[in-house]
Amino acid sequence: MEETRKRWQHSIRTGTEFETEHRLQDRDGGYKWHLSRGIAQKDAYDKQTLWISTNTVIHEQKAHQEALEKAVAERTHELQQANETLKHKNKELESFTYVSSHDLQEPLRKIQTLAGRIFDKEHQNLTDSGKDYFGRIQKAAGQMQQLILDLLAFSQVSTEERTFKNTDLSRLAQEVISELSETIAEKHATIDATGLGTAPVIVFQFRQLLHNLMGNALKFSHPDVPPISL
Fold first, then answer.
1. Which burial class, exposed, middle or buried, applies to 100 when counting CB atoms under 10 A from its CB (0-12, 13-18, 19+)?
2. Residue 27: what are its φ and ψ, rounded to 5°?
3. Cα–Cα distance between 34 and 54 in angstroms, integer?
4. Average pLDDT in the chain
5. What pLDDT, on the 0 to 100 scale, is given for residue 93?
6. What pLDDT is stored for residue 161 in this prediction?
7. What's the CA gap between 38 and 41, in Å, rounded?
8. What's residue 162's pLDDT?
9. Contact between 35 and 72 (Cβ < 8 Å)
10. Could you tell me the CA-to-CA distances from 67 to 60, 62, 71, 76 in Å, in that order?
């Protein structure tokens, strides 16, 4: 009431338009929101002669507005909680980065070192089959190390920073085929990945895509039918 009185007195004193939102009591004793407006009519000497006013019930609009503001506040709170969760996940990602950069790579280095020493020092004592197995161990360890480095690089960049690189897809597919060579041999599978051309891709993600597609195709192929992929 005090705010309404101040605004009305200011309009009377200055002749400026009057407008305010306030609650008025109805005949049942309840209060509803109203929008009150007033415009001064003036004579040739700029003297106020009368005021023309309107009073509009805006209770439903105010209720909708309050409901909307409440929903926005709740959604804002949810987003704040989600942001806190994301911060926690980022800390976990930092921990993963440390594990990837140290705890996973160190034992892998030992495997590579020991396998290399055995292969070099015992080369003459190994059968052709043994040499082949050691070669596979070193190759698999190298692939694992590259995967760890790719994961490490992937975890350290944001979505905006992930860059697309124009890549020979056939070469990338051949790398995956090489990684799956043992499974391909067991399944007697034929994979023709030539002539794929080049495309701008995120290399790590696209390699994983090809790996998952080929791996699943081999895994779920019919046991009595050699799979063929062109």
1. buried
2. -65, -20
3. 10
4. 86
5. 74
6. 54
7. 10
8. 66
9. no
10. 10, 8, 6, 14
Q: Write the single-letter amino acid at 21.
A: E
Burial class (CB in 10 A: 0-12, 13-18, 19+), 210: buried
For residue 6, pLDDT beyond 90: yes
Q: Which residues of 114-145 are buried (b: 16+ CB within 10 A; e: fewer)?
A: ebeeebeeeeeeeeeeeeeebeebeeebeebb
pLDDT tens across 134-156, in order?
Answer: 888 888 888 787 777 777 776 66
Cα–Cα distances (Å) from 17 to 14, 23, 36, 47, in that order, read 9, 20, 11, 14
**Distance (Å, rounded) from C-alpha 179 to C-alpha 68?**
56
In the chain, the largest separation of any two C-alpha atoms, in whole Å, equals 119
Q: Which residue has the higher pLDDT, 106 or 217?
A: 217
